[in-house]
Design brief:
This protein has 179 residues and is of the alpha/beta class. It is built from 6 helices and 7 strands. The strands form 2 sheets. A 4-stranded mixed sheet has the order 1-4-3-5. The chain is globular, with a radius of gyration of 16 Å.
């Protein structure tokens, strides 16, 4: 709810808001996602965290809003308007709400590049932590496991030079193997 309030406040300003990055609280931002050349080159208005088995948005693939970049002000407004003020036990997942709001307008969509990674498939990606832009600690059993994973990502990526390298810069550092 706090993130929605901040986003709504930003949209209320007369500034030209043209993009919004929605992330879950369990996403570690390792470098500036808005400076990502591969993302900037894409034309789609909606970029979201793709699952490794489901790389493009389709009726058979659920939208994962854990990492979702909207590059259209009306899309941002539609998602914010659809979100409830409070989430309860019977409230649908925010990604289901976002997907319904966006599907209604039929925007072109694609998944974010693999360096917007997630815990479910990071080990299969072939990427190192130093190559990543983000790391989503999803697919964890509970909050304790999420916190442990986030702690390992932060510790193991401490030696990465994110400010002076681009996503895809090769390194031998992988989760749990850095000193």
């Amino acid at each position: 709810a706090a993130a929605a309030a901040l986003a709504a406040a930003a949209l209320a300003e007369p500034a030209d808001v043209t993009a919004a990055l929605f992330v879950d609280a369990d996403v570690v931002l390792l470098r500036n996602p808005f400076a990502d050349a591969e993302v900037l080159a894409r034309k789609e208005a909606l970029l979201y965290q793709g699952e490794d088995h489901c790389p493009s948005y389709s009726p058979t693939c659920a939208l994962n809003s854990g990492q979702m970049l909207l590059r259209n002000r009306s899309m941002v407004e539609a998602v914010l308007a659809a979100m409830p003020a409070r989430f309860g036990a019977t409230t649908p997942l925010e990604q289901a709400i976002a997907a319904a709001a966006l599907r209604a307008d039929g925007y072109a969509a694609t998944s974010l590049p693999p360096h917007f990674s997630g815990h479910c498939w990071f080990g299969r990606s072939g990427l190192s932590l130093c190559e990543l832009t983000t790391y989503h600690a999803h697919c964890c059993v509970n909050d304790r496991e999420k916190l442990a994973v986030i702690g390992r990502v932060l510790r193991d990526s401490a030696g990465c030079d994110f400010a002076h390298s681009a996503p895809g810069a090769r390194s031998r550092c992988t989760l749990g193997e850095c000193g």
